Amino acid sequence: MLLDRELATSSHVLAVILRSFARGRIGVPARGMGALPQAVAAPLPAGSIALRTPVTRVTPGRVRTEAGEITCRAVVVAADPPAAATLLPTLDRVRMHAYTTYYHRTETAPLDEPILLLDGDRRELVANTVVLSHAAPTYAPAGQHLVATSVVGPQPPPERVIRGELARLYGRSTADWTHLTTVEVPDALPAAPPPQSRLRKPVALGDGLFVAGDHRDSPSIQGALASGWRTAGAVLDELRG
Ligand SMILES: Cc1cc2nc3c(=O)[nH]c(=O)nc-3n(C[C@H](O)[C@H](O)[C@H](O)COP(=O)(O)OP(=O)(O)OC[C@H]3O[C@@H](n4cnc5c(N)ncnc54)[C@H](O)[C@@H]3O)c2cc1C
């Protein structure tokens, strides 16, 4: 969950995330993770978002992009931590955890429920594996199943090693499974080592510059959403003067 094999994450962060698990339900959107940003963007007026337009420089009241410059009263940098620290050099550089997910197709599901299976033998290779199409049937065609298996850390093992681990974990042969793809995300989640007694890091940097993202709250989607909400409030306060 924290992508942290060393268990070096602050206990404050762990408590916040466990509280979210206890209060909410775990799931994935039926139309894929892209449905989440689409839902956030849906109420905005048409043409107000420029996609595939990397920002190259940010200064008070100005945003330079590969497609030209924008002038504005407030700038919110909501990029991932390494990109945010490049655009706003006063921010601390945050260490990032790497995560890799292997996707397999099988006609016979190795489990009947959408259970996130952990490795009780603690061989420290597979972090977790799940028949994802049991949680979201839209993720596989009828009669087929999608298994997603994740590994924490850089230098993920070859797929054949993971396939062997899966046979052990599920207690059945995986020889007839089809490997669909492996997705490596080197900068998947910001590390959150102690001290984190001040979980909520400042989002208003002065001069109309703001920063939002999971690295300003807890390393998770809800942390990103909470920080976005907090940043929006800070921008409104400043614009209203
Ligand atoms: C494989 C994986 C599984 C995960 N699973 C979970 C989970 O189950 N639950 C959970 O809570 N969290 C999960 N996370 C973590 C979660 O995805 C992040 O915490 C969350 O996406 C952070 O949101 P954010 O808005 O802060 O940043 P991001 O989602 O990283 O968004 C930043 C955006 O900024 C853009 N950007 C960067 N640089 C520039 C630039 N120069 N110009 C313009 N745009 C730029 C990027 O393209 C990106 O779209 C997972 C992460 C990964 C990688």
How would you summarize this macromolecular structure in one to three sentences?
By secondary structure, the chain is an alpha+beta fold.
Write up this protein.
Helix content is 26%, strand content 24%. It has 241 residues and is of the alpha+beta class. The chain has two domains: 35-39 and 49-91 and 197-240, 3-Layer(bba) Sandwich (FAD/NAD(P)-binding domain), CATH 3.50.50.60; 96-190, Polyamine Oxidase, Chain A, domain 2. Strand 2 (62-65) and strand 3 form a beta hairpin. The model has no long low-confidence stretch (mean pLDDT 95). The site of flavin-adenine dinucleotide (FAD) has 18 residues, from strand 5, strand 8 and helix 6. Residues 54-55, 78-80, 83, 99, 101, 185, 188-189, 213-214, 219-222, 224 line the site of flavin-adenine dinucleotide (FAD).
Give a topology summary.
Layout: H1 11-23, H2 35-41, E1 55-59, E2 62-65, E3 68-71, E4 75-77, H3 81-87, E5 96-106, E6 128-131, H4 132-135, E7 145-152, H5 159-170, E8 178-190, E9 204-206, E10 209-211, H6 221-240
Parallel strand pairs: 4-10
Antiparallel strand pairs: 1-2, 2-3, 5-7, 5-8, 6-7, 9-10
**What's the story with the biggest beta sheet?**
4 strands, antiparallel
Structural class: alpha+beta
Ligands in the model, by name, code or SMILES, are: flavin-adenine dinucleotide
Q: Uncertain regions: pLDDT < 50 for 5+ in a row?
A: none
The gyration radius over C-alpha positions equals 21 Å
Q: Please tell me the overall pLDDT.
A: 95
